[in-house]
């Protein structure tokens, strides 16, 4: 029965993907920025519902200009954060070619970075600074990779320089996936090590109903901290928000 229900969810997911593909290809060019943002939010909620994930928001997302800094658990994180509040992600370049998230993140105005290239990181920091000056809401995963949702990886500081350069605030965010009934932490959505996108999706579809929690912390300004000092403090804040 579990696998049959997962198959039904999978069919719904495919339907959501095709709807988004059609709309982004054919309707997005005529949408305003606000209309595109609202579309992405609604589509992300529908996609998560098809997978069997409910989103719960605690706290309030800040208005731009702001850089959001969240812990990273799964490829689902982008969907979850879009469902809570539309933002422009700074994502690894590989996501651009993914069949599900590539479409959504590109349509949502994401910036892509070659993580192995210091020169590309500098280019993206400049783009981020310009977007923040224009009042945008950006989002990054400072861990640089995915954890298990329980223990955080060290926060990298490079991309935080964009907020320092234009004196923009950063809002720490804690993401968690839980069993919707017991509220115990669920490892089903984790995307780590040798996981594949399809394998991770199927494991998530087979899991009991899940709850994705987005907890927004208070915004912070640099207040004289350099990017490395700020990264350490942000990691500690996100860890506290996860408790």
Detail the topology: elements first, then pairings.
Elements: H1 2-26, H2 33-51, E1 53-58, E2 66-70, H3 76-84, E3 88-92, H4 101-107, E4 111-113, H5 118-133, E5 137-140, H6 161-165, E6 170-179, H7 197-206, E7 210-216, H8 227-241
Parallel strand pairs: 1-7, 2-5, 2-6, 3-4, 3-5
Antiparallel strand pairs: 6-7
Helix pairs in contact: 1-2, 2-3
Describe it.
It is a single chain. The chain is of the alpha/beta class. The protein has a single domain (2-241), classed as Glycerol-3-phosphate (1)-acyltransferase (3-Layer(aba) Sandwich). It has eight helices and seven strands; from the N terminus they run ααββαβαβαβαβαβα. It has a seven-stranded mixed beta sheet, with helices on both faces. Helix 1 (2-26) packs antiparallel against helix 2 (33-51) and helix 2 packs across helix 3. It is globular and about 55 Å long. The mean pLDDT is 90.
Largest sheet: 7 strands, mixed
Based on the coordinates given, report the CATH architecture.
Answer: 3-Layer(aba) Sandwich
Overall domain count? 1
**Assembly status:** single chain
Counting DSSP E segments of at least 2 residues, the number of strands comes to 7
Low-confidence stretches: none
Mean pLDDT: 90
User: Nearest-angstrom radius of gyration?
Assistant: 17 Å
Q: What's the helix count?
A: 8
Q: Largest beta sheet: what is the strand line-up?
A: 1-7-6-2-5-3-4
Can you tell me the overall shape? Answer: globular
Main structural class? alpha/beta
Helix content: 40-55%
> What is the fold-level CATH name, i.e. the topology?
Glycerol-3-phosphate (1)-acyltransferase
| Element-level helix/strand string | HHEEHEHEHEHEHEH
Strand content: 15-25%
User: Class, according to the CATH hierarchy?
Assistant: Alpha Beta
Distance between the termini: 34 Å
